[in-house]
From TrEMBL:
Keywords: Repeat. It comes from Olea europaea subsp. europaea. This is Pentatricopeptide repeat-containing protein. Belongs to the PPR family. P subfamily. PROSITE patterns: PPR. InterPro entries: PPR5-like, PPR_rpt, TPR-like_helical_dom_sf. GO terms for molecular function: mRNA binding. NCBIfam families: PPR (TIGR00756). PPR repeats lie at residues 223-257, 258-292.
Amino acid sequence: MNRLWGVFRLSEMEIFLHKCRKITPYSFKTQKINPKPSIQLPYVRKYCNSNQTIWSDIITLFSDKWSTDSVYSKLKQDLKDKVSKLKDEILMQNDDVEKIGKVLEENGVELFRNYSDGSAVVELYSQLKPSPHLALEILNWRRKQLDYASPMTAEEYAKGITMAGRSKNVDLAIELFNEAANKQLKAASIYNALMSAYTYNGLAMKCQSLFRQLKKEATCTPTIVTYNILISSFGRLMLVDHMEATLREIKDLNLSPTVNTYNGLIAGYITAWMWEEMENTYRIMKASGIKPDLDTDLLMLRGYAHCGKLEKMEQVYEMVRDHVNQKEVPLIRAMICAYCKSPDINKVKKIEELLGLIPENDYRPWLNVLLICVYAKEDLLEQMENSINQAFEHNASITTAGVMRCIISSYFRHNAVDKLADFVKRAESSGWKICRSLYHCKMVMYSAQMRLAEMERVLDEMDRVNMHCTKKTFWILHKAYSRWGQRSKLEQVLGMMCKHGYRNSLNA
């Protein structure tokens, strides 16, 4: 009876394995287990004739811990660990190409051969993302290896094309594409990689041309990834009509849009400053059952910052605060810019909190100018001067009269004529925008303090920068001399005003 029970159990196990197509029925031949195609699993050991071994393997196969997902997860982690060890050895060679080649020969060849689907190489490229030059060196090494050892796969070529595009080496990307085509490895992923490289480097026309070429291929067809890249390409060029036509084509082909499809649309609408369409796309995306990812949230944060919808901007910011604070300095600057342009009564406090998240060496002249204006309008003289000093230290210059008048007004409201005089000297020597308002303001402020001699010297400063007296200049002198009883000088000014025809306008 026990023998029959054992035969029944053995037959049950064989049927199970046959359904999984791991071994042939009624024989225990060594086969590869491959739950998911992206990772090649090691060989299952051969079964021996020992009853103890058979029963041990039956228990192992039917236990919960060896479910498909857990096996895949463990093997994926095992692959990452092996590749990570190889990566560390490569990084220790200090960019020495010969030594890196030796490490690859000793430890890489066998690893790549064990994972002949290319997953180990692709994983190595991914782990070397912070060092793209090393990834490209390994790619060159791989191309020189004999194909019979561990031939390059389509996915490896696709990853190489993507890396070349990110390194702005379009010629290398094209070379890899042609090399893959010559090896009969044409696949949608290869086309997608080159289209992405073209888009990243601003070659939209070539991207579209390659898309048309893909549509003519007999062995592969465009995928949803292909259309996502096309939408992104059109969005960068603000070709909204083309972008929307691509979305209609996706629906006509019964392809399922992904989160990247909607992200590309949202990014395109933001680039074109089409805020309503941006929000509508976001609502449609959520209504379609597609959950927004981190990229979606970051796009919406940028969009709300640019269009000045502070309440919604702050709501999204709360969702992704930790990520933005650590890794998204451009978005922090966009939020500061939004606050600078807003009437929010607490904007200075919010601006300074965000400024604390930006590294000290990450200076942007345009942002500094905005801060100068904000502090000037809020009459925060010390903060304004700190921002002005930063501009001088970084050899940045202000070239618009409006910003200069904003600075002048702040000095005037604080009655800080000496600080204004110092600012005007520095602005002259640094090539900033020089306007009469700078000098007229100094004259008015010197007059208010009865510092008439210094007021008169301002006229010499104006003459030194080839700035002639105008009706307003004489009017300021007339008011000053009248106020302080300088009759003789007043008569001289009246004479000059008559000479220039300003007498009547003054009386008016």
